[in-house]
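Task: complex structure prediction.
Instruction: return structure tokens for all chains below.
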Amino acid sequence: MGVEIERKFLPAGDGWRTQGEPILLRQGYLCADPARTVRVRIEGGEGRLTIKGKNTGATRGEWEYPIPLPEAQELLDRLCERPLVEKYRRRIPYAGFTWEVDEFLGENAGLVVAEIELPSEDAVFDKPDWIGEEVTGDKRYYNSSLIRFPYSQWTNP
Amino acid sequence: MGVEIERKFLPAGDGWRTQGEPILLRQGYLCADPARTVRVRIEGGEGRLTIKGKNTGATRGEWEYPIPLPEAQELLDRLCERPLVEKYRRRIPYAGFTWEVDEFLGENAGLVVAEIELPSEDAVFDKPDWIGEEVTGDKRYYNSSLIRFPYSQWTNP
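Output:
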């Protein structure tokens, strides 16, 4: 098991837009239950199956397996819950860490979330000036929630 | 994607008991939804992750990935839905096919199911005399159903 320690923020302004190179991520869920999500993702021609456990604070158990691209495609097309999640991810290095800025498409268009993966829950990090409100732990922003309650349906985002 | 074509029977009598060598299978579900089951199984010291689609007659899509044993153990212990399914499987060759006879333990003790995997839906096969009623398609006998409605709770098995 790997452990994922991640904090999540909304952007403040558009400063992120001109940084990093946007890469298209296409992903879906075989299981969107927060207690045990099973995700299929295609990124840059590679398929991956990722299992994550329940969040405890900013920490989750994570198990990840590469799978052949045609099989990832089949699982996304035939089996995963609808809708799929599509987003452009930009990886932006800043002060020794890498920020992942996800710009969602489709039913989640308009939503942008910035994440930082940390070595420990209490790790200290600097934030670029285009980072705004923290939303770590806010279930609405879980990617697995965004298939049930996409951003376009939020009345009070 | 592989395709699994499988027919399922109840045994008639105990003739199967003295054949094949019982091997313990321990398995659990990350997703027990019949539209997309995600199963973790340990058999003979090997871990495997198996994804199956919806049944159409006796046919299901199947995607299978070997995973390291300690990770299979973690997924079973920490993440899979309760209860786990444990059973002894006997593989019994008969008339050119292999029958898998599963003798369930724990909350499903008393249940025995015999399965035969076929190359096509209309394949012709001979049945040993210890094979009884066919239960292909009867959802109660799905392993993924047995964690929700274990055999010990059936009022009219």
